[in-house]
C-alpha cells in the first residue's frame, strides 16, 4: 500500500499517546446491550476496547500494541460471566500507514483464532459499504471500560457509555482547540462536550466505537487530557479509503 504523509507535527510534549481509557460524564450501559464490544488484553491484563465486525475479526486502534486476547460478551470485568463470555487468541494486522507521531491511520484489525458463536451477548457490528461523515453538532455515542475520573488510575469494572457531540474539523484545528498540534485531518473526527457538560473517552477506551445514529463511523484514537471542554476526543474516521483497507485485509 502506498502511504501518503500528512503534516508532520511533533506532539510528544502535548498529546497523550493514547486517548481512550476513561469514559467521562457517562453511565453504565445495560448489560450486553452493545454485544459487539470486545475487551482486549495484553500480557498485563485489559488495556483497550474493540469492535467485533465479523465472525473472526475485531477492529481497534493501531496504538493498542501487544494484544494477546479478545474477550467477547463481557459486561463486568471482575465477574466470571461464564455463560456469556467467549475468549479468543488474536493475530494483529495494524494499518500499514499508521503513524504514531501525526496519529493518522490509527486502526488495526485483529484476527481471532476461531470464529465467535453468535449469541444474545455476542454479535458483530457489520460495516456499511460507505459511511457518511457526521456533521458538526451531531450527537453520537462512545463506550469502553476506561477509568471514570482523572483521580482514579484504574479501569471501570463495568462497560460505560457517553453521548458525545461532533466538533467541526475547522473548529477542532483552531487555536482554542488543538491549534494544529496535531493536525486534525480529514481521516479524523473530533467529538466531545456539547459546550455544557464534560463528555469524553480517555486512555483505556482506545479502540472503542464512535456510533452515530447506530452506525459505526469511527474508532477511539487520542486526545489531550480527559474531559476538557475544548480538547475533544479524536476518532479515526472509517472513510471509504479505510473501508477498502479493511475489506482487503479481511479478504486475504
From TrEMBL:
CDD domains: Tryp_SPc
InterPro entries assigned: Peptidase_S1_PA, Peptidase_S1_PA_chymotrypsin, Peptidase_S1A, Trypsin_dom, TRYPSIN_HIS, TRYPSIN_SER
Molecular function as annotated in GO: serine-type endopeptidase activity
EC number: 3.4.21.4
Keywords: Disulfide bond, Hydrolase, Protease, Serine protease, Signal, Zymogen
Superkingdom of the source species: Eukaryota
Keyword Protease tagged: yes
Pfam families recorded: Trypsin
GO BP, one annotated term: proteolysis
Cellular component GO terms held in the UniProt record: extracellular region
Main subcellular location: secreted
Keyword Membrane: no
Name of this protein: trypsin
Annotated organism of origin: Lutjanus peru
Amino acid at each position: 500500500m502506498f502511504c501518503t504523509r500528512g503534516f508532520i507535527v511533533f506532539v510528544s510534549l502535548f498529546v497523550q499517546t493514547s486517548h481512550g481509557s476513561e469514559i467521562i460524564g457517562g453511565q453504565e450501559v445495560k448489560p450486553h446491550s452493545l454485544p459487539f464490544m470486545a475487551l482486549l488484553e495484553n500480557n498485563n491484563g485489559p488495556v483497550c476496547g474493540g469492535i467485533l465486525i465479523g465472525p473472526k475479526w475485531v477492529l481497534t486502534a493501531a496504538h493498542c500494541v501487544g494484544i494477546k486476547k479478545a474477550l467477547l460478551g463481557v459486561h463486568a470485568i471482575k465477574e466470571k460471566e461464564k455463560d456469556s463470555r467467549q475468549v479468543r487468541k488474536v493475530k494483529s494486522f495494524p494499518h500499514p500507514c499508521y503513524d504514531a507521531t501525526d496519529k493518522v491511520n490509527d486502526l488495526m484489525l485483529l484476527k481471532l483464532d476461531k470464529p465467535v458463536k453468535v449469541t444474545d451477548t455476542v454479535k458483530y457490528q457489520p460495516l456499511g459499504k460507505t459511511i457518511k461523515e457526521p456533521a458538526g453538532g451531531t450527537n453520537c455515542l462512545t463506550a469502553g471500560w476506561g477509568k471514570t475520573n482523572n483521580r482514579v488510575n484504574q479501569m471501570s469494572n463495568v462497560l460505560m457509555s457517553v453521548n458525545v457531540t461532533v466538533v467541526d474539523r475547522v473548529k477542532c484545528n483552531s487555536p482554542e482547540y488543538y491549534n494544529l498540534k496535531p493536525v486534525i485531518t480529514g481521516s479524523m473526527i473530533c467529538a466531545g462536550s456539547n459546550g455544557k457538560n464534560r463528555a469524553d473517552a480517555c486512555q483505556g477506551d482506545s479502540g472503542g466505537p464512535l456510533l452515530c445514529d447506530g452506525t459505526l463511523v469511527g474508532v477511539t484514537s487520542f486526545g489531550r487530557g480527559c474531559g476538557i471542554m475544548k480538547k475533544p476526543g479524536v476518532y479515526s474516521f472509517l472513510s471509504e479509503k479505510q473501508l477498502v483497507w479493511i475489506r482487503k485485509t479481511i479478504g486475504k
